[in-house]
TrEMBL record:
The chain crosses the membrane at residues 12-32, 52-72, 84-111. Residues 258-268 have a biased composition (Acidic residues). Residues 236-268 are annotated as: Disordered. The keyword Membrane applies. The keyword Transmembrane applies. It comes from the Bacteria. It comes from Pseudanabaena cinerea FACHB-1277. This is Uncharacterized protein. InterPro entries: HpsJ-like. Keywords: Membrane, Transmembrane, Transmembrane helix.
């Protein structure tokens, strides 16, 4: 009684764990669908990296689901359940390959995002530095109107500055110093923004790369460790071949028995 009770309890526990595993796989499927639809591969590198982040961040859900479903190898399963196990075993390999592909796509996306950030920063720097170059040209011109334009530009850049507009020579010296100062500050600020964006990109992508790589390894290991689900048919074939060989040997041995039985009659 105790053995049958423990066996029944083990079966119920295994069924509950498998039910939870199937539920987790369905939740993972919903997450993957939400991340992938609508697909924009090759069009938007930000979307590609974001999709990799969602994939890798939710990878524990299908991993735990797979482990729960495969729990209890020796516990009784229906024929449909055994077939489904074989499908899920190959699905784990497919998921491992998908994570590797997504990892490669994420690396390409990060490179393209970094290039776009650099191009955008360079474009902004070119536009803003062009204004400083115009102010420098105005200083070179002795016309008072050009000097006034340079003074207005510096006042917009540094509202708290006090310019001596009554003395053109001193004003020109002040403006030259302020233009050089603001230009250097602008270059430094743009470089800091580029470095900050690059660090943020590396931080985000590096975490996603690591999670995707670990997920791929785990799924491939699940596929490797569940080879028993894929070898059921082969075992049956081997058993069938052995039974067939046994029947052939019985048939081959039958005539020898008959000859042994008929020999005494001939002697008589």
């Amino acid at each position: 009684m105790s053995n049958s009770t423990s066996s029944s309890t083990e079966t119920i526990t295994a069924n509950l764990l498998r039910l939870a595993g199937y539920g987790l796989l369905l939740l993972a499927l919903a997450n993957f669908g939400e991340a992938l639809l609508p697909p924009r591969f090759g069009q938007d590198p930000v979307w590609e990296l974001s999709t990799l982040t969602k994939f890798s961040g939710s990878s524990p859900v299908p991993i735990i689901g797979m482990v729960l479903i495969f729990y209890g190898e020796s516990t009784a399963r229906s024929s449909f359940g055994k077939t489904l196990l074989k499908v899920l075993s190959w699905l784990s390999l497919l998921l491992g390959v998908i994570y590797i592909v997504m990892l490669l796509i994420g690396i390409s996306a990060a490179i393209r995002i970094n290039n776009d950030n650099n191009n955008q920063a360079s474009s902004v720097a070119t536009q803003q530095l062009a204004q400083f170059n115009t102010a420098k040209e105005n200083l070179k011109n002795t016309d008072d109107s050009n000097l006034k334009k340079a003074a207005e530009f510096i006042e917009r850049q540094s509202p708290n500055i006090k310019l001596n507009k009554e003395n053109p020579a001193e004003l020109r010296t002040q403006l030259a110093a302020e233009i050089a100062k603001n230009e250097n500050e602008l270059r430094t600020r743009l470089e800091d923004q580029k470095a900050r964006a690059f660090r943020q990109l590396v931080k985000q992508s590096g975490k996603s790369y690591f999670e995707a790589l670990v997920s791929a390894i785990v799924f491939i290991c699940i596929w490797n460790q569940t080879k028993w689900t894929r070898s059921v048919v082969k075992k049956r074939k081997k058993k069938g071949a052995k039974s067939g060989a046994a029947s052939l040997s019985d048939i081959a041995s039958a005539p020898t028995l008959e000859t042994e039985e008929t020999n005494p009659e001939t002697e008589e």
